[in-house]
Amino acid sequence: MSWRDAMCGDLRAEDAGRSVTVAGWADTRRDHGGLVFVDLRDHTGKLQLVINPEHSPAAAEIAHEIRNEFVLQAIGEVVARAPELVNPNLPTGQIEVQVDELRILSRSTPLPFQLDEENVDEALRLRYRWLDMRTERMQRNLRLNHTAITAIRRVMDEREFVDVWTPSMTRGTPEGARDFLTPVRLQPGKFYALAQSPQLFKQLCMVGGIDRYYQIATCWRDEDLRADRGFEFRQLDLEMAFVEREDVLDVTEACVVGAFEAAGVEPPVRPFPHLTYADAMLRYGSDKPDLRFGMEIQEATEVTRDSEFGVFKNAPCVRYVVVPRTFSRSEQARLEELAKEWGAKGLANLTHVSKFLSERELEAFGVEEGSTALFVADEEAVAAHVLGLLRLHLANELELIPAGLDVFHWVTDFPLFEVSEEFGGWTFMHHPFTAPVPGEEERVESDPDHVRGQHYDLIWNGWELGSGSIRIHDAEVQQAVFRVMGMGEEEQRDKFGFLLDALQMGAPPHGGFAMGIDRFIALLAREPDIRQVTAFPKVASGADPLSGAPTAYPDSALKELGIRLLDPQPE
Ligand code: ASP
């Protein structure tokens, strides 16, 4: 006997008269005097079972024991419901199953929360994830994961990409985060790092003649957890030899569109628009701008050079945004507070400072009745940063972002280097393997401030979906980049000797990309964070409420790994 021969959600009026065996969870039970109704649920939907004591006294007896989330098997006949009992809200609402035989396959203790309860505390949902997974939301999201990834794999396969498995336990990979370390029993005192990405392995695949590599790769980065970030995450990781930037962008766009189509969502129009980094910073104050709304940042440095208003005249940079409404004094004060929290000295409202400004200035700003111009006068980076955040804040607050709009775009031409906040010297903007823009290689060491990298980011509605670049395939250029980052010959050999060797043994030109799959699915599912599309995520503290990990280990186990703790084990 099979456990079931029909799925709950599949039965329709045409099935009336069929004898079926169904199995699933008791969603609800309603006792109507003699008759008992049970909504039986599997992942395809809900089906009404009717248990009639006159028809089957044995089944009726069992039915009284049923509680929510018991696992049941029922055998019976599909019958049409009387017209007045049809439920138009349920796909199976025209029929029900008249139960002949009923079995309880598994029982459930009282539930910590009901499946149809709203706003269940997330820690509780994660602690009992197996229950939470039974909800429509989680079923939809986890299945969407599968649909999107299958579509992406199809695109990659059609384009002859080869799925190559690369190690998780490796040397530290410089992607800008801390490494997770794994001690090694056979070599006490030494550690593997969990791969922050397969970056160098995929480059070595190119040197190895694989030509087109991809992987749905798990990556580990020790960073603070946020809506779009977990300790471990998956990325569509790809690399191609003998390509230009446009080839990489083309494949990535095809994957995005393929996943949208498979999910039944209207895909974005290709090719996705491009924005240079310089433009993004100037107009939106961010390298991952949300382009679903305007409110672009305006430049006013030039026009305020001779201003009577000292705050403008003396600032290295003056910029503003025009907001389509006016603010009361207290609203303005609150915005000023926010601007200060973000690092500005203040936030000037044109209405309040116009008496200090010339006709020429006022004309240049051209602010209409009912709108407000808000200015930041500061260092360029501060003006960009603060106005970028203000733009996002006001768009959310004033609900200027149209619902259901998807805007994808590329940001290109990033600087190759930036100044490290940590140690003050030059560090990479993307990773140290990104090639300079052709023609700028010569200036890597002499003018690092102005060299641009062949680095591109993909942005969806203000979320950075992924990054990629054309790589350095010349050992000398690679060494020049290492030197700018303050790495001497010895350190270069020690950390990246294998890469430098490979680059000297016939490395083809190559480039690639990595797209955060979890971020992508969260946005595709219209969810606010990646935990909603992850089967077993961790909470913000980094803990796993389900298994209780991370856990302490006894000293004896640590000793074997050559580890002694500074602080005694917590009880
Ligand atoms: N390794 C990069 C990352 O993980 C992606 C790439 O450059 O292909 O962000």
Descriptive tags:
binds aspartic acid; 16 helices; globular; five-stranded mixed β-barrel; alpha+beta; 28% helix; 571 residues
Associated small molecules: aspartic acid
How much of the polypeptide forms β-strand, as a percent range?
15-25%
Poorly predicted tracts of residues: none
Helix content: 25-40%
Q: Let me know the largest β-sheet.
A: 8 strands, mixed
Q: What is the number of helical segments per DSSP (H or I, 4+ residues)?
A: 16
What is the CA-atom radius of gyration, in angstroms? 30 Å
Number of strands: 22
Mean pLDDT: 95
The N- and C-terminal alpha carbons lie at a distance of 52 Å
Q: Identify the overall geometry.
A: globular
Going across the biggest sheet, name each strand in turn: 6-10-11-22-21-20-17-12
Task: State the secondary-structure class.
Answer: alpha+beta
Describe, in plain words, how this protein is organized in 3D:
- This protein is of the alpha+beta class.
- 28% of the residues lie in helices and 23% in strands.
- It contains 16 helices and 22 strands.
- It has helices at residues 57-63, 122-127, 129-132, 136-158, 199-207, 245-263, 277-284, 310-313, 329-341, 350-353, 359-365, 380-397, 475-484, 489-503, 517-524, 555-560, and strands at residues 19-32, 35-42, 45-51, 71-80, 95-106, 162-163, 169-170, 181-183, 191-194, 212-220, 232-241, 274-276, 298-299, 317-323, 348-349, 372-378, 408-412, 417-419, 426-428, 455-460, 463-470, 510-516.
- The chain has an eight-stranded mixed beta sheet with strand order 6-10-11-22-21-20-17-12, with helices on both faces. A five-stranded mixed barrel has the order 1-2-3-5-4.
- The longest helix has 23 residues, at 136-158.
- It is globular and about 95 Å long.
- The two termini are 52 Å apart.
- The mean pLDDT is 95.
